[in-house]
Specification:
- Its main location: membrane.
- The protein is built from seven helices and 23 strands.
Length: 435
C-alpha cells in the first residue's frame, strides 16, 4: 500500500493529499481527452443544409442553437450560444467537417448553462467544443450522439474566424423588442441620443412591433444605424414577459433576453470597441463629459485593467411632465416625449439601483442583464456624478408627491441637436405618411 509504514498524522495527511492530487490530475486529463476531437469519417464532402434562422431547434433534445463563434482566448474552441433545458440536456457533440481533406471530426461538448436562469427550466447556455488542431472549420453541426449521418444535420457557420479591425466604437444591444412595441417617439429620441453620444450601430433582437414601428426601423436600417436580428423565440418556447419564474407553465424569462445579450456580445466582438447593454428606454447620460468616447477614455485611464463599467439606473416617471418642449408635430406620434420628463425618483433606502453596462466585448465570457457572470479583467461601478442611466418609464415609487422628486435637466443639454434630429427622422417616416 502506498502509505504503509507512515506513522505520523502529518505524514498521513501529506500522503492523502498526494494521492488525491494524483487522482484529480488523472481525472482532469481523462476529461480533456474525452473532449478531444476524433476522426470518425474520411474522404467526405461537407454536406448538410446551412442553417439560416436566428434560432434553430435541434430535433428532439430540447436544445436551440443561436450561433457558433470561434474563441481562442484560452484554447482553440467553437463556442455556440444556445438555449437548453437545464436538466434534460446532458450530452451534445460538435461535428466538424474539414476541407479539403474531407475528414469529419466529432468533439464532445461542454454544456455550460448560465447561472442566471431565475428558476426557468430553459436558460442561456454556452456549448463549447475543442476544434481539431490541424483544421480551421468554417461550419459545425450539433448532435446528441457521436454517431449518425452528418448529412442530416443542419450546419452552422462559425463566426469570428477572422480577426477584424474595429469598424465602430460603440454598439448598443437591445433585447428583446416584443409586445407589439409601439413607443415610437421615445424610440426615435433614444436612437438620436445614442448617435449624439457617439453610437454608430444599434443591434435589435426583434420579436414583434407595430406597423408604424416597422417604418421607423426600415429608415434606420437603410441609414445603416440599425441591424435587426429576428427573434421568433415564441415559435419554439412558451415565453414569459417576467424576468423570474412564476410556475405558470412558461419556459424562459423575458423573451430570452439573456441569450440575446450574450449573442450580441459575441456577434460584435471583432467589430466594435465597446458594446452597450441597455433597453430602448434607457440612455447613459454623461455628466462630466460631452459624449461616450471622452467618458470611456477617462474611465479607462482611471480604472486600468477594467473591462466592465456599470452605470446606475434612475427612474424618470413618464407620469410627471413639464410644459417645456411641447412640440405640436410630435403630439401625433405615439410614445413618450422624454424632453418633458426631467424629474427622477430619489434612491430608496436599502434598495440597490440596478445597473446596465458598457463592456469590452473581447473580455466578456458570459453576461447577465445587470452584471457580467464571467469576464477577464475587473468590473467598476461608475459614480453617479460621472454618468447615470436616464430611464423614462412607469414610476416605481408611485405614491411619491411631485415635490419629493429630484429635478434633473441633464438631458436638456442636448435638446437643440435632439429636436433637429428627431424632426428630420419624423419628416421622412411618420409625418410623411400622415400627409
Amino acid at each position: 500500500m502506498l502509505c504503509a509504514g507512515k506513522k505520523s498524522y502529518f505524514a498521513a495527511a501529506v500522503c492523502i493529499i498526494t494521492v488525491t492530487s494524483m487522482l484529480t490530475v488523472s481525472y482532469l486529463r481523462l476529461q480533456r481527452l474525452s473532449h478531444q476531437p476524433k476522426v470518425i469519417q474520411e474522404g467526405r464532402r461537407c454536406r448538410g443544409k446551412i442553417a439560416n434562422s436566428s434560432i434553430t431547434a435541434l430535433k428532439g433534445n430540447k436544445t436551440f442553437i443561436i450561433s457558433p463563434y470561434f474563441d481562442d482566448r484560452e484554447s482553440k474552441v467553437t463556442r455556440l450560444i444556445g438555449i437548453v433545458h437545464h436538466e434534460d440536456v446532458k450530452q451534445l457533440y460538435c461535428w466538424f467537417c474539414c476541407q479539403p481533406n474531407g475528414k469529419i471530426y466529432v468533439s464532445k461538448a461542454k454544456i455550460d448553462v448560465h447561472s442566471d436562469r431565475f428558476g426557468f427550466p430553459y436558460g442561456a447556455a454556452d456549448i463549447v467544443c475543442l476544434e481539431p488542431e490541424n483544421c480551421d472549420p468554417n461550419h459545425v453541426s450539433i448532435h446528441q450522439s457521436p454517431h449518425g449521418n452528418i448529412d442530416q444535420l443542419p450546419r452552422f457557420e462559425i463566426k469570428n474566424r477572422k480577426a477584424e479591425t474595429f469598424s465602430v466604437d460603440f454598439t448598443v444591444c437591445i433585447s428583446a423588442m416584443f409586445g407589439n412595441y409601439n413607443n415610437v417617439l421615445q424610440f426615435i429620441q433614444s436612437m438620436e441620443m445614442y448617435k449624439i453620444l457617439g453610437v454608430q450601430k444599434v443591434v435589435i433582437y426583434k420579436n414583434n412591433c407595430s406597423h408604424l414601428m416597422e417604418k421607423v426601423l426600415k429608415f434606420y436600417i437603410e441609414e445603416g444605424t440599425v441591424e435587426i436580428i429576428p427573434w421568433p423565440i415564441h415559435s419554439h418556447l412558451n415565453v414569459s414577459s417576467k424576468w423570474h419564474f412564476m410556475q405558470d407553465g412558461t419556459h424562459i424569462g423575458y423573451y430570452g433576453q439573456i441569450t440575446a445579450l450574450n449573442d450580441c456580445i459575441y456577434r460584435n466582438m471583432e467589430r466594435s470597441k465597446f458594446v452597450v447593454l441597455n433597453d430602448a428606454d434607457e440612455i447613459i447620460l454623461p455628466l462630466k463629459h460631452p459624449d461616450w468616447k471622452t467618458m470611456m477614455n477617462s474611465l479607462q485611464e482611471q480604472n486600468p485593467g477594467t473591462s466592465v463599467f456599470l452605470f446606475e439606473n434612475h427612474i424618470f416617471p413618464e407620469t410627471v411632465a413639464t410644459r417645456m418642449f411641447n412640440i405640436s408635430s410630435w403630439n401625433t406620434v405615439p410614445g413618450v416625449n422624454i424632453l418633458q420628463h426631467v424629474y427622477r425618483e430619489p434612491d430608496r433606502k436599502d434598495v440597490i439601483n440596478p445597473r446596465k453596462m458598457i463592456v469590452d466585448p473581447r473580455k466578456v465570457i458570459q453576461t447577465s442583464v445587470h452584471s457580467v457572470l464571467r469576464a477577464y479583467g475587473n468590473s467598476a461601478n461608475v459614480p453617479m456624478d460621472v454618468a447615470l442611466i436616464y430611464h423614462c418609464r412607469k414610476a416605481l415609487q408611485r405614491d411619491l408627491p411631485r415635490e419629493s422628486l429630484i429635478r434633473d435637466t441633464t438631458l436638456w443639454r442636448y435638446n437643440s441637436s435632439l429636436i433637429v434630429n428627431v424632426n428630420k427622422v419624423l419628416s421622412q417616416t411618420i409625418l410623411q405618411a400622415q400627409k
